[in-house]
Amino acid sequence: MGLQTKKALLTPLMHPARPFRVSNHDRSSRRGVMASSLQELISKTLDVLLITTGLVTLVLEEDGTVVDTEEFFQTLRDNTHFMILEKGQKWTPGSKYVPVYKQPRKSGIARVTFDLYKLNPKDFLGCLNIKATMSLLRFVSYAAQVTGQFLVYAGTYMLRVLADTDEQRSSKSPKPTAKGWFM
Questions:
Q1: What is the rounded distance in angstroms from the CA atom of residue 29 to the CA atom of residue 3?
Q2: What pTM was computed for the model?
Q3: Pairing between β-strand 18-23 and β-strand 30-35 as defined by DSSP bridges
Q4: Hey, which bits of the chain come out as E strands?
């Protein structure tokens, strides 16, 4: 009983596996990896990117910050993008490199993002995240509002025109008597 209690208290707490994205030095190969520790992430990255070199450096893809401590690794968000550098390779900004703090607001008709990853290697389907931004809906709503206003104004104008022509007809023609309407 005492051995089990000691074992339970002294074993380090395992963090749950989290999703990350990794690429090689020239960004020609990108993969999604689930890992709970820095060492596990490096090991899985070497496996999925088929890197056999033992000496590698893990950096943040966005700015090249070296990730070499478990404490720093645990503070990073899920889906953080990493780059693995072999000996002699250096981080360079990508062709579409935009620092996180200066990302421009993208406007377009629609943007849909699909993220598919497995929480456990034995999972058959895994997890699917779908993010959709639809500015098309805003545009259609605005167009419907403008069209509705146009129809209201056009209808009002048509009623005025028809009312004016009815008044002109009634003033020119004699009014029918009750006898003429029923016979």
A1: 47
A2: 0.46
A3: antiparallel
A4: 18-23, 30-35, 56-60, 81-86, 110-117, 127-134
Q: How far apart are CA 132 and CA 110, in angstroms?
A: 7
- Report, as an integer, the average pLDDT of 39-62: 86
Tell me the residue type at 82. Answer: F
User: Do residues 34 and 19 make contact, with C-beta atoms less than 8 angstroms apart?
Assistant: yes
pLDDT at residue 129 tops 50: yes
What number of H helices and E strands is found in the chain? Answer: 5, 6
Nearest Cα neighbor of 118 from 52, 50, 44, 24 is 44
Q: Which residue has the tokens 């016979």?
A: 183
Tallying the residues shown for the chain, one arrives at 183
Q: What is the DSSP letter of 17?
A: P
Please, what's the b/e burial string for 117-155 (b: 16 or more CB within 10 A of its CB; e: otherwise)?
beeeeeeeeeeeeeeeeeeeeeeeeeeeeeeeeeeeeee
